[in-house]
Amino acid sequence: MKKLFAMLLVLSVLCTTVINVSAAETQNRNFTDISGHWAENTINKWKEKGIISGYPDGTFKPDNTVTRAELSKILASAFDLPDNEIASYIDVSENDWFYPYLKKADKYIPIYSLPTLYESNIPYSEHQGKNNFLPGINAIRMHVAEALVEIKLSKENIVIDDLTIQEINAQVQEVFKDAEYTNLMAIPGTGIPQNVQRMNRYTWLSYKLDIMKGDTEGCFNPYGYMTRAELLTAIDRLLTTNIEDAEDEKEWENSFVYSNFNDNSEHYQKSENGEEVFDRNSGIKYVSGVATQNSDGEYILDGENLNHLSWVKIGYDEYYGGLYLGISMIAHHLIADDEFSGMCSSVVTNLYDGSEVKDNADLANEHFSISINGDPITIKAVGMGRGNGHHDYYFALDTDIIRNEIKEVTFEGKI
Known about the structure:
The protein has 14 helices and twelve strands. It is an alpha+beta fold. The chain has two domains: 2-19 and 64-247, no CATH class; 252-414, no CATH class.
């Protein structure tokens, strides 16, 4: 409850103290300027909770910008940041209204100049290395994304896979259309500039951690100013996730992994130059397994051809309407195991448009048989995910059973 109160408090701060809004005058009125706005649902969501309100004229002004000073207060309040050392900025005084908050948030708010001198980036370029905080300058999306990522990583002790800048850039370009990500600007003799690497890395992390997404045209817009709507949406993502995590821990305990075979090293062989090469003759036509709960409550998995998979799991997700069976294969397997993986892909993609689960249950049930505690369970829908070199196939199960009731699961998939 303490965490939830703190989260709600920051949204109140965002829309009253920082933006000088009179809640009493506008709380019972619909905002007149958000109809059709991309953040309309999020704005209304928090207005209905009584947490935010608009201006006395009935507007919310979703596209108004937020300054760096305002950002420091929002971050300090949102995440209950402790006091920290603050840099000796020449444009910040201990008498400034935002100083107590900057002492908490300073280490998270970047000041560096981005690679290209767009208008929004000029103040950062002109004051680079001059010991300024620039409190009155409008915050840009890239700096806000980095601040939120660093706070989330720190608060939740998240460890991120170590990828090269080229791998990160490739993933960023798959998601966002901004021209700024199409060139890593490598300089002969010095390599890729640090600000280019930093921009790519935090764009990737903000997307990977579900903190900030692109606009309706598929652009991240790193140089753009951070607006009220964008900041509210980013905070909503973080706060909603944290609130749900705090309140729904019991629900998420219904998810558990049967097996995790990591890199499937037994299917690799070394070439003469020492590189790992996948054995392309290790294709399979079926997978079967039995997961049984032992006296310690752990699930012990045994079966056939399981070492061709990255993981097998039973999970719980509202998106899939409850329990699902998940099977994952790394990209190498999609080449070698073309019969089994091809079957999985056909089952899932036959009626899958790349964005939502489609009802392809009949075909899935032709290839997969699943039982829980000895009772046959049918598949009611299918889904697919991709990422980090994996293809993940999800089969939603038509059952109301929950984790604590599961003693044994058997499954078989065949072409």
